[in-house]
Amino acid sequence: MQSYSTTVSVKKKKMKICTEDKIFNVITYFILSLLLVVFVYPLVYVVSASISKPSEVLSGQMWLFPSSIYFDGYKEIFKYTQLWTGYGNTVIVVGLGTLLSLAVTFAAGYSLSRKDFFAKKFFMLTFVFTMFFGGGLIPTYILIAETLNMYDTLAALIIPSAVSVWNVILVRTYFMSSLPEDLLEAAKIDGCGNIKFFVSIAMPLAGPIIAVIALYNIVGRWNSYFDALIYLSTPEKYPLQLVIRNLLTQNQMTNLDPGAGVIEIENIMKVEGMKYGTIIVSTLPMLIIYPFVQKYFVKGIFVGSLKG
Amino acid sequence: MKNKKLMLIVAAVLAVAVVCAVVIPIATCDKGPAQKVLHSNPQVLADAGVYPILKEEYKDQITLKIMGANNAAINPDWSQNKFFQRMEAKTGVKFTFEVYGDDMYDEKKSLALSTENNLPDIFFKANFSNYDEVTYGGKSLRSLNELIDGYAPNIKALLDANPALKKSITTTDGNIYALPTIYTNLPDGITNIMRDYLWINQAWLTELNLEMPGTPEEFLNVMRVFKQKKCTGKGDYPFVVAGIDHLLNVFNFFGMDLKSYWVQANGNGGIEFMPQTEEFRSALQFIRTMVSEGLMNDNWAVMDATTLNATGASGTKYGCYSAAAPQYVVGYGENMREYVTLDPISPTGENGFWGASFPAQRGCFAITTVCKYPEAAIRWIDALYDFDLPCNLWAIIGEENKEWKWNDEKTAWFSTVSDKDYAKVMATTIIQTGDGMPYLVDESFWEKQETAIDKYTRPLRNRQMKHGKVGYPLVYFNSKDLREIGDLATDINNYVNRYIAAVISGDKNLDSDWTTFKTFNRLSLDRYMEILTKAYNEYKV
Fold it and tell me: Which of A24, A48, A70 is the last residue of a domain?
């Protein structure tokens, strides 16, 4: 270890940064700074807007930092019960959905990774087929809402989206590349069956890929609203993103009646003031989770890439 | 090896085929043809004009499912809404609801109409487009013609008295699939309605000794003086425009109403594509002058009405702007009283007009083919088209002597709910925002509303509405034409809009580019005009 670090430092000393490299660095940092601004600006804007007066946000007086400190928006958010029911529903959908997804994705991914699985090719082909061809919105809707009778149930958000073929392939590749066949043989000699091998040997060795698939699922399900939009009809079942979407997309001031009074305007301003606060409240859990899982995330993505 | 692969592919295809063969019949045959039989149960109805509308033995026995669009933020739950409760008590028909915010409703509506899954009995505040009515009319939507003739005396009377109205809601196959909002008893001299008005700063006019402009040139001069004397700050403009709709109001100055398809009826019974006329060129020249002299905001294309309205609180004053009412832009209080509506402007100073719309808004109420009691449904909605009944007002301001009342002389009425509680009380009492409601709006009643704001703005709005004209009527296209006109209109809109923006910003010069623009035809303009002319001629007959 010692010698390794010394060679590096020696090398570093020897390396001279020539002018071209300097120019290259300057340009790189310049571009990166621009990107930084592009990515950070919306975040700062949303935070500032959530604590500024709605009228100032709308009229463009507030453009980066809060022009005034105004917490009424947050007060309204905490009183807005639909948002919190939405939170509850999202937690249920994300929790159950992710568990189910992990179960089926790993079962499928593992089976397909086994060379001695007799119908491997056939199943793989069928799986991949669905990546390229789908029934389209209306037939899917009829199938789920009518034939499977899942209309207006949370099951419609959990079950149909349980398997993502992309994730199955990721898991399959992981098992193929990092689970030696010898391990299976050794286990078999010791009297281990297939299921036992999967549960007690394969799964514990799959830590990073479990984290990645779980994170994909959590983020994806947390942010999705479209399934909820078409399959749910009772407001009490709406997940968080749908509640927010409804809040954000309606209440436009453009179609006011000429006779609308002070109250209507105030009402609209109130909702306007809630918009940015709700965005923060709803992304907060994701922001909190991310730093902890992020290392697995990067690791897991590279897991399959080398040998896959 | 090759053979094995081939076998596998064949096996996979076979498997898919088998799955399809099993699933498709389940999905389609499930519903069967039984649904296509139109229900008819007139025996449940009591005599016309009698309330409850159902015979005693059917009272409260019939439940209809309503789907509708609704602003969830101000009107959360229709099942708790007093309007529907009062209607249930009055008519004896009960309801269940499926109500969505405007944007979610569009998805739900399309899914229900196209899959016939979860189809409600009736659509209330249906927000149907030409496309919905023509595509689903006769499939999931039921023709209302016979129902109106047989069971809806009020609607029938309104349609018989106003053939233009009947024409405007009858689709190309001769059927009516949806009922409109109907405006009646418009004040003297008003035949069309408007939602957007141009407001000019009368206080400045008076202070600077200026006259109300009557020609574009005079308007320009007024704005120049405003700019010189009043809008001296950086970024201050005497004339503010938010979006293309506001900009199109300016084309009214030159005798054009371009809000539908850029066409307008000419004097000879035909229609004309306006962007290729000299009037259009003059209007563009005029707007370019305003922008280049700093009289009008150059960010008009990206500004939206919400932004303009929100500036009200900041105390900014303007010379002229478009809005439904002045208070939205300049705030409540004394500020708003400084503004009045513009008198019509035309190049000669005579015969000016403002773009308006026909006093009906279509696509508000429909009955579906799954409704078991269509006669009861149409009789129910018929009550909202009778101004002698209180139902109509329950929907929009509440019950007399509860939420509103007349003064002693019955010359004016006012709300009895305090301003502080108004939004909260009304959220569960009425269907807020009358936009898209299937009912009758009696303007002579609304004129008597006793609020300070309305008393000030209503006469001014009427003053401008007197000059309201419809450039191209609200026609129906059949589904083939609709698809074609949709595609053509997208291209032509883009082309014209881009040209307008380029001229206004100075990127294109009217002197050098006008001829090229004027003669464009590669976007199938001929076909476009053919379809519009056909629909227009059918509308006229």
Answer: A70
Assign residue A203 the CATH number of its domain. Answer: 1.10.3720.10
Domain end point (choices A70, A101, A116): A70
Per-residue pLDDT tens digits for B355-381 = 988 888 889 999 999 999 999 999 999
Q: Which of B124, B125, B150, B138 is nearest to B177 (CA)?
A: B138
Q: Note down the domain range covering A138.
A: 75-305
Least confident of A90-94, B238-242, B379-383, B442-446: B442-446
Confidence of residue B35 (pLDDT cuts 50, 70, 90): very low
Q: Compare CB distances from B71 to A138, A250, A266 and report the shortest one's residue.
A: A250
Supply the pTM of this predicted model.
0.80
Rounded Cα distance between B101 and B90, Å, is 27
Whether B64 and B104 have beta carbons less than 8 Å apart is answered as: no
pLDDT for B423 equals 72
Contacting A residues, span 227-266, partner chain B, CB-CB under 8 Å: 229-230, 233, 235, 242, 245-247, 249-266
* Rounded (5°) CA angle B105-B107-B112: 90
DSSP output for B83-107: HHHHHHHHH--EEEEEEE-HHHHHH
pLDDT at B422 over 50: yes
B186 DSSP 8-state letter = P
What chain B holds in terms of domains, given with CATH numbers, is 42-186+359-450 (3.40.190.10), 197-355+477-540 (3.40.190.10)
Contacts of B114 in chain A (CB under 8 A): 138
DSSP run (H or E) holding B344: none
Using the structure block, give the residue that is written with the tokens 């700019």: B227
Q: Is B53 exposed, middle or buried (0-12, 13-18, 19+ CB in 10 A)?
A: buried
Residue among A129, A146, A267 whose CB faces B423 most closely: A267
* Residue A160 belongs to some domain of the structure: yes
The whole-angstrom distance between A274's CA and the closest CA on chain B is 11
What average pLDDT does range B341-365 have in this prediction? 90
What is the SS3 assignment for B249-300?
HHHHHHCCCCCCCCEEECCCCCEEEHHHCHHHHHHHHHHHHHHHCCCECCCC
In this prediction, residues B184-211 reach a mean pLDDT of 90
B306 CB near a chain A CB, below 8 Å? Answer: yes
Residue with tokens 């450039």: B471
pLDDT at B254 over 80: yes
Gap between the Cα atoms of A52 and A280, Å rounded: 14
Written as six digits, the tokens of A198 are: 């999967």
Q: Which of B373, B367, B436 is nearest to B138 (CA)?
A: B367
CB B327 within 8 A of CB B453: yes
Nearest-Cα distance to chain A for B314, in Å, is 8
Residues A29 and A86 in one domain: no
What is the reported pLDDT for B396? 84
In the stretch 27-86 of chain B, residues with CB closer than 8 A to chain A read 27, 30, 71-74, 77
> Do residues A82 and A66 both lie within one domain?
no
In whole angstroms, what is the distance from residue A72 CA to residue A52 CA?
9
Tokens at residue B429, please?
């009492």
Mean pLDDT of B314-334: 83
Q: Are A237 and A154 in contact (CB under 8 A)?
A: yes
Q: Do A80 and A97 belong together in one domain?
A: yes
Rounded Cα distance, A82 and A241, in Å? 11
